[in-house]
Amino acid sequence: MSALLTLRFTRISPDRHRFEYRRADGTGEAIEMETRSLLTHDLVHYAVESEAGLKGSFYGILAKIGGYQELSVNGGAALGGEIAITERIVGALQGALARDEFDEAAFQSEVADYLSLFDDPPPRWFTPVFVAAVRERMRQLNGRWKATPFGETMELEFRPD
Fold first, then answer.
1. Are 58 and 66 a contacting pair, CB within 8 Å?
2. Checking DSSP bridges between strand 153-158 and strand 28-34, what pairing results, if any?
């Protein structure tokens, strides 16, 4: 059986959305959230984990076990391992993507230095080409979200297997 995770982002108002996920077995949850920071953060996770093919980060773990709230505590960093590194990269990317332009190679080098503060080497997949791919994926996701009318849903699939 596939570990498909269906993600639904429903636009409720200019500042609220509903995040819903459903696992392949039909379990999941729906949570109403503040949009300004949480939507972007969740979409950057989706872009990073999809582009890198990650299985043990936020959406990969959500597809198999746990709930949104327990994984969101400390951004999952308290769990250590892949999800901790991913959370640090997602946080840095979230800030960088808010700028109109940045140099992918310089950004990758800065984040590698930041990860070294935690004695974590940058993952092999974390390259300037990867950063550019995430930027493009986020451009597409943001466009889809902006085109989603209030009351409608943007649906994504995450396959961590």
1. no
2. unpaired
Q: How far apart are CA 39 and CA 153, in angstroms?
A: 13
**SS3 state at 121:** coil
Q: Which of 47, 43, 81, 41 is nearest to 61 (CA)?
A: 81
Q: What is the pTM of this model?
A: 0.92
Identity of the amino acid at 137: R
Helices (H), the chain: 38-52, 58-64, 68-72, 81-97, 104-116, 128-146
Q: 6: helix, coil or strand?
A: strand
The residue written with tokens 């999952």 in the block is: 76
Structure confidence by residue, pLDDT tens digits, 67-117: 877 776 555 555 678 888 999 999 999 999 988 788 999 999 999 999 999
pLDDT tens for residues 123-148?
999 999 999 999 999 999 999 999 99
**What's the half-sphere exposure (Cβ side, CA atoms, 13 Å) at 153?**
12
